[in-house]
Amino acid sequence: MKERRPLVMMVRKAPFHAGHIKNMLAVTEMGGIIHPPVPAFYTKQQSGGDIVDHCIARALVRY
Length: 63
Fold this sequence. Notes:
Layout: E1 8-9, H1 18-29, E2 33-34, H2 48-62
Parallel strand pairs: 1-2
């Protein structure tokens, strides 16, 4: 963030406690982006690696 480059955080889905939410709020207030890794099952991935690759590709294309 100090170099003005985009920061995209992929945080685990749940459960969040108040500390997690406060930290995510602080990141977004500083210009970061929170992008939860939600797999899209309509693409019918064949392995866990395919799911990871798809989630990362979605985050990188969007931001």
